[in-house]
Amino acid sequence: MKKSLYSHVILFFLFLSPLLVSAQEEDLMSMLDEDSETIVEKVTATFKALTIINANTTETVKAKTLVFNIIHRFGNVSGGAHTLGGMDNASNIRFAFDYGITDKLLVGIGRSKVKEHIDGSIKYKILGQTTDNKIPVTIVWFSGMAVTPMQSPRNGDGSERWSKAAHRFSYIHQVIIARKFSPAISFEILPTYSHRNYIIRNVNPENGAEDQNDLFSIGVAGRVKINNRLSIVGDYFYTFSKYRDNNSAKPHYMPLGLGIEIETGGHVFHINLTNSPGIIGNDYLPDTNDSWLDGDIKLGFNIARVFYL
What we know:
CATH superfamily: monomeric porin ompg
Number of strands: 12
């Protein structure tokens, strides 16, 4: 009797086991589906370099990574054949090193020909865009400081214009907000505040407005990917300044840059055209005095080389 009962019980569980296994598989698959739905990744490579032409991007580098940047601006193409389209004249050259303290924190130092500026900068990634769009944009804070060691200009009475060391310093702060709309299209906006410790209180003869130490600007920049190695890039800045509006005594133009970006292994190479001789914001925001319409356009290139330390 007992033997018969045991055999029935064994047969019952043998019959039931496929159903139990099937139910467990369904539960396991549903758990895996739930887990896969909760996987959220950060959007990467919104831009391919730390700068576009004039504008900074939201990109940082991995910790213990060093980026060496060379940026060159030639003279105005309006110089014609006698200057080989401006290539005989270097309007500005900048060498810079940027180092990743962490994946989100980047520090840099550079030297420009214009005003012999030595600059230091810090960039911190506050938020990163996510693939589920719960965080729809990347937000980065950028701050830069520049000092000029060049010989001080002279006033009319022969005295030095920069009578204090503080007169040689200028600053820039930006919130960079970017979104990668697709693998091919990225766009950013750059609300910007800049401050110069020393200015000459010139007056716009058209409206009587004086130049100011503090300037507010807004920048826009974008990248359109053509193929795996080639992209079109551009940026533009508008500075809110009555002194710079239609100033016949000292014309001011908004910096505009257009170019192509080429990826070649460990290099990102930009070939561009811009009306700005300045490379850092401390220079191009207050002092772009050349116009695209007058042919005062400068051929330039940006090249970055990455070293993994």
